[in-house]
Amino acid sequence: MNTNIIQLDEVIREMAQGFSKPFLCRSENGDEYIVKGLGSTRRSQISEWICGNLAKILGLPIADFSFVEISSELWEELPDHFRNLGSGIAFGSKKVAGVNWLERFNAQDISEDLQRKLIAFDLWIKNMDRTLNNPNLLYQAQNKTLVIIDHNQAFDPQFNLDDFLETHIFREVFAHYNDLINRIEVESVFSNALAHLDDICNNLPQSWYWINPEEDISSSYDFKYMRETLERVNKPGELWRIK
Question: What is the pLDDT of residues 21-39, one digit of tens each?
Answer without folding.
Answer: 899 999 999 999 999 999 9
